[in-house]
């Protein structure tokens, strides 16, 4: 049965991304949008002209969730695609009205806001939640996860990870983002942090970070993070000898050639993700010391999460939300609040570490939340 959906916040990301994904997925029908921008609401028919069931009417644009429920229809799901600093309030409004919710990343602006959202998910197990960490469902990242966690793994026991996501995105300082104090880390960096967790199958437990504005920059918000992470499985949180170490560099003001690197090294080899290469570039060591090796190729797996539908990215989240709602919350999406909180918490730990000059023990953020 087709489920009803609304989008809250009709900004560029909602129009160019979520609106298109909802329109493509056969389980979902858009029945309204919520925004406080009256000019956008007046143009709802034009903005939604490409919907498969025809455009929404001007009457299907609302100023609040309550107006949507009172004057329109109660949706099965809401997609919160507003600026980060009001996510926690809008998620609360949705869930207190019995509405399943997808919230755009980053979860929240502060650790306490994120904890409030996590508590809502704990208090409402009948509802499904998800965060827009769709990068883990891109085919190359799913392939890396499947390779490292499955029987095809040829690199052995994971020991070291390097992640670089640095490029020049000066235009990002537009709209609501220009008010963020730590632009890169508060907004997009959670995608890359989530990939470290997803591909490795481990949690980030310790953070040492510096977050800063490069000395040549005229920005008034930080664009760059240099960090060392320790990652571990839950049973190894307290066993430092079993930790895996991560070098992390993320930058929105890089000069020159962009620097993109996802490298995972084990005792028997290493690999890097390479979308242009069409899969994983693998080095298999031929001796115990790793002084000789041969190169190999592991092809892209196009069946993300084994769904058999060719979906990736946001389409996977929509598929999992649909199945989760059918189960009345018993089966939660992979990026549910309980899972996504652990990636969000790392962004907050980076800020805390940079401001205090100390390492941060990340599980302290959730140790009393039952995770």
Question: Topology, pairings included?
Answer:
Elements: E1 3-8, H1 12-24, E2 28-34, H2 38-42, H3 44-47, E3 61-62, H4 65-71, E4 77-80, H5 87-96, E5 100-103, H6 111-123, E6 129-131, H7 139-149, E7 158-166, H8 183-186, H9 189-200, E8 203-212, E9 224-232, E10 244-251, E11 259-266, E12 269-274, E13 279-285, E14 293-299, H10 314-326, H11 337-356, E15 360-361
Parallel strand pairs: 1-2, 1-4, 2-3, 4-5, 5-6, 7-10
Antiparallel strand pairs: 7-11, 8-9, 8-15, 9-10, 11-12, 12-13, 13-14
Helix pairs in contact: 5-6, 6-11, 7-9, 9-11
CATH superfamily of the largest domain: Dihydrodipicolinate Reductase, domain 2
**CATH architecture annotation name of the largest domain:** 2-Layer Sandwich
CATH fold title of the largest domain: Dihydrodipicolinate Reductase, domain 2
Strand order of the largest sheet: 14-13-12-11-7-10-9-8-15
Instruction: Classify the helix fraction into a percent range.
Output: 25-40%
Stretches where pLDDT is under 50 for at least 5 consecutive residues are none
β-sheet strand percentage:
15-25%
Give the count of helical stretches.
11
Please give the radius of gyration in angstroms: 21 Å
Secondary structure tally: strands: 15
Shape: globular
Number of spatially distinct domains: 2
Q: Overview of this structure, please?
A:
With 371 residues, the chain is of the alpha/beta class. The protein has two domains: 3-134 and 311-333, NAD(P)-binding Rossmann-like Domain (Rossmann fold, 3-Layer(aba) Sandwich); 136-303 and 345-363, 2-Layer Sandwich (Dihydrodipicolinate Reductase, domain 2). The chain is built from eleven helices and 15 strands. A nine-stranded mixed sheet has the order 14-13-12-11-7-10-9-8-15, covered by helices on one side. A hairpin with a 2-residue loop joins strand 11 and strand 12 (269-274). It is globular. The two termini are 33 Å apart.
């Amino acid at each position: 049965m087709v489920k009803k959906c609304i989008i809250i916040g009709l900004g560029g990301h909602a129009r160019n991304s979520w609106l298109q994904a909802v329109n493509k997925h056969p389980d979902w029908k858009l029945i309204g949008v919520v925004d406080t921008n009256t000019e956008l609401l007046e143009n709802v028919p034009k903005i939604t002209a490409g919907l498969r069931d025809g455009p929404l009417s001007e009457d299907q644009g609302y100023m609040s969730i309550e107006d949507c429920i009172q004057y329109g229809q109660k949706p099965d799901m809401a997609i919160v695609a507003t600026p980060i600093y009001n996510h926690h309030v809008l998620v609360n409004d949705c869930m207190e009205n019995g509405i399943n919710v997808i919230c755009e990343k980053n979860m929240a602006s502060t650790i306490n806001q994120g904890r409030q959202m996590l508590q809502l998910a704990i208090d409402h197990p009948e509802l499904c939640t998800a965060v827009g960490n769709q990068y883990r469902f891109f085919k190359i990242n799913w392939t890396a996860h499947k390779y490292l966690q499955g029987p095809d793994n040829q690199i052995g026991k994971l020991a070291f990870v390097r992640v670089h996501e640095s490029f020049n995105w000066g235009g990002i300082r537009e709209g609501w983002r220009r008010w963020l104090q730590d632009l890169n880390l508060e907004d997009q960096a959670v995608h890359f942090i989530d990939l470290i967790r997803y591909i490795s199958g481990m949690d980030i437990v310790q953070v040492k970070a510096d977050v800063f504005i490069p000395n040549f920059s005229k920005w008034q918000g930080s664009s760059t993070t240099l960090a060392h992470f320790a990652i571990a499985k839950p049973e190894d949180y307290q066993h430092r000898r079993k930790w895996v170490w991560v070098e992390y560099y993320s930058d929105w003001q890089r000069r020159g050639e962009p620097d993109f690197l996802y490298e995972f090294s084990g005792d028997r080899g290493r690999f890097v993700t390479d979308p242009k290469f069409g899969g994983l570039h693998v080095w298999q060591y031929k001796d115990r010391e790793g002084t000789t090796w041969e190169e190999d190729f592991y092809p892209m797996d196009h069946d993300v999460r084994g769904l058999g539908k060719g979906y990736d990215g946001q389409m996977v989240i929509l598929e999992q939300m649909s199945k989760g709602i059918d189960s009345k919350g018993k089966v939660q999406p992979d990026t549910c609040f309980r899972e996504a909180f652990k990636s969000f918490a790392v962004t907050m730990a980076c800020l805390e570490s940079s401001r205090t000059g100390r390492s941060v023990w990340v599980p302290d953020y959730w140790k009393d939340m039952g995770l």
